[in-house]
Every structure is written in C-alpha cells, then in structure tokens.
Amino acid sequence: MAIPFVQEPSEAFSLPLSRLRLLHYSANLAIVVGAHLFAVQLRLRLTWGKPLGAEYEAQPLLFYAIMAIGQALAYLIASWAERTPLQRLLTPRSQFRVLIVGVALSVLGALWLLPDLSQLQLLYFALSALVLGTCLIVYPGRIDPHQTSSTFLFHLWRLWHNRALLGLWLRYNIQSRYSQTVIGIFWIVLLPLAMSGVLALAFSQFLRVSYDVPFVVFFLAGLVLWQLFSSGIFGGMAAILSRIGLINQVNFPREIAVLLVLGEGLVDFCFTFLAFVIVSALNGFYPNAMWIYLPFLLLLLIAFTLGVMFFLSSLSLMIRDIAQLVSVIMQLLFYLTPLLYPVENIPEPFRFIVLLNPVGLIVQAFRDVTLYARAPDMLSLHYPIVAAFTLLYMGYAFFKANESRMADFI
C-alpha cells in the first residue's frame, strides 16, 4: 500500500511554563491516586488484622483532598528547600522527589485527620506510590534522558495530526483482508461462533459440566474480549517487523503501525460483539442498564493491550525468539483467564493466580454486566485500572526511546 500523505505539524510545539507545572502536578496526583486504588486492593487481598468495613474505612473522600494538598505543598517545599525556581523542578529526578515528599505529607495528614483509615493501607499506599513513581517517572527518564513531558505531548500531537493516515490505512487493510473470500467479513463472526458451539457441545453434553447460564453465552462473553487481546498481542509483535521496508522509506509516526493492528482488532471486536448480542438474546439475555459500564471496561482492555503491544513491537526486533515465548505465555494465559470456567470454581488457595491477570478481572466484570445485569465490582477493578494505564505509559515510553534504532535491528 502506498502512503497517500504524511502530515507533519507546521508549527513548533511548546507549552507555557504554567501549563507544564500544572501537567507535572496532575501527573503526580494521578500517580498517588493510582497508588491509593492499588493500596485498597492490596488491603482487601493481603489482610492482616481487622478487615475493611469493620472499623476501618477503605476510601474516605477526605483522603483524596489530602493527597491533592500534599502534592501542592510538596512543590512549594521543594522550591523553597532547593532555592530554585519552580521551572527547575520539572526534571524527572526533581519530580520524583516531589512525589515522595507529597506522599509523606499525605500519610501524615491521613494519620492526623483520618483515624478510621487503616495504617496497613497507608503502608501499602506509600509502597505503591514508590513503585508507580519509579515506573512512570524514573524509568522513562532512564531509557531516554531527552524524553520530557513536552516531547511526550509532542508525540501525541504529531500522532493526532496524522490521524487521517491511520484511518485510510485501516480501511484499506480491512477491505483487502476479505476481498478474495466468498463470504467476506462474515468470517469474523463465524469463527468464534463455531468455536463456541464445539466447546458448548463438549462441556455441556460430553463432560456434563454445569453452569448457571448457557455455556455458549458464558464462553462468548469472555471470547469477544480475549480475541481483541490476543489479536493485538500477536499482531503487535509483527507490527513494525512486517513493515520495516516502509518505515525505512517514509517518515511517519511509527506508533501508527501498532495502532493499525489494534484498529483491525477493534473492527473484528465490533462484529464478534454483535454476534454475542444476538446469541445472548436468543438465550434470554438482553441489553440492560448496566451496559453503561461496557465502554469503561473496553477502555481498560484497550489500554492494557496497547501497552503490551508497544513493548512487544520493539522487543520483537531486538529478540527474534520473543514470538515463540509469547505463544507459550498466551497459551497459558488462555487457561488462566476464566473463559471456560467461572472464578468461583477455582479452589480458594489457587484463586489468586487467576486474580493476578488483569484480563481475567475485566472478563469477569464484563460477564457481570452483560449476563447478570449487575454493576461490576469496582474494588476488584482497581488493580486492572492501575496496571493498564501504567503499562500503557511505560510501553509507549519504551517504544519511543527505541524508535530511532528500529532499522538498526534488521
């Protein structure tokens, strides 16, 4: 396919200093909020002492205000202590120090103002903030010292200016993929339906495994998400490698090749989801008010998948054995994700293995919404939320840090 055009931003990208400060403050605040969400999840899973809800409150609203004030005070304290203007605090090292000071102030404020907040949860909060700060501030600065908030926003700005290229390329690939087939794009629907029918026959008739809902809708509810995830993972490994000739000849944002694979997976998802809706309706499961949560669950899965894709698209150039390794891991994940079985059937001592998989938790929430007409357990989604967006940022930073060297690995 010939690239019709590549549009570059015509003006230099820059942000006023006040907006950069606000951006850094917002980033640090997002990190501590993510650390708090993850700490609540840890407190529920690794409980010592009295459980949450007995004497301890899990998520008091006042703690969010304490975190916001703590980060603001941390910037002022760092500026005064270092005798430097605020613009000098915009480096990754200074931003990380400000984050740690803000976390310490938040913990002290919570101990003073929130006696009902678990001290163990505060410990988890501090440790989680340290880990997330390392992943989101220190790590991108180490792999690419020239990567700053301004350059990161410039990459997104440049990508937005080339959105038409992504749309044209995606339309071409979708049309050409099924142009020579007899039934065309309907293969997207027929393949998962055939797989679900065979497994439904095997599990419900031959193995006599009982479910509280028909197996075909139970399995399809997980399969529509798993197909989006697996197609992104396997396609992401070849996203750059299969287009290296074009990449060497045309200057365009390289992440478009990765987003193209994800876009194809999303098109397939639309058709498989439509098939799931029809099959569910035939079995007595109709759309309900809880479907309002579906865009949020889909966003979580997209963020997690895209983060892994950014890593794999670069690593597949450096390590050619990565494809075989990922195939084995994906085969294991297929059985560790509750696609064929409900989580409740897993013995309690081994259930944590499945709960470590963010995709499994998203699948479980998807079933709650579509099959049981109930809101997803938001506490169980704290971990996927933090994991998805952390991995997305780290993966994109890794991808951009190695973008200029991609041709050297061929």
Automatic annotation (TrEMBL):
Protein localization: Cell inner membrane; Cell membrane
Superkingdom: Bacteria
Gene Ontology biological process terms, A to Z: lipopolysaccharide transport
PROSITE patterns named among the record's database cross-references: ABC_TM2
Domain (ABC transmembrane type-2): residue spans on this chain: 183-402
Keywords tagged on the record: Cell inner membrane, Cell membrane, Membrane, Transmembrane, Transmembrane helix, Transport
GO terms, molecular function: ABC-type transporter activity
Assigned protein family: Belongs to the ABC-2 integral membrane protein family.
Residues that span the membrane, as ranges: 22-40, 61-81, 96-115, 122-140, 182-203, 215-244, 256-279, 291-313, 325-343, 378-399
Protein name as it appears in the record: Transport permease protein
Any single Gene Ontology cellular-component annotation: plasma membrane
